Each structure stands twice: as structure tokens, then as C-alpha cells.
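ENTRY TYPE: protein
CONTENTS: sequence, C-alpha cells:
***
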Amino acid sequence: MFERVDYTVARIDGDYAYLLRADDSSAEEKCVARALLPPEIYEGCKVKYEMLSYEMI
């Protein structure tokens, strides 16, 4: 569960962002509260999930 997973921010909707896995185009969007994401995210940016936290890449 601590391995790195890369995502693209597909869309931002209010207090939530919808992420798509970079390595699995058939996966469903993942809904994540924006409070858990870096404040500077924007649609189309890349983020990584590692060690229970998100960071821009």
C-alpha cells in the first residue's frame, strides 16, 4: 500500500478532485478531497500518491 501511484487531475469540482491513474487508462476516476491534495493543483497536472500523501510531480 505504500508504493507510488501517479495520477492526472482529470477535473476539479468544488471541494473534490477527480484523478485518473497514469498507468491504467481503464480505471475509474478516483474522487479525492482537495484538502488532501497540494493547494496548487489544476486540471491536467500530475500528482503522485506515496506514503499516504499526495505531491505534485
Remarks:
- The mean pLDDT is 95.
- Residues 20 and 28 are 7 Å apart (CA to CA).
- The longest strand covers residues 5-13.
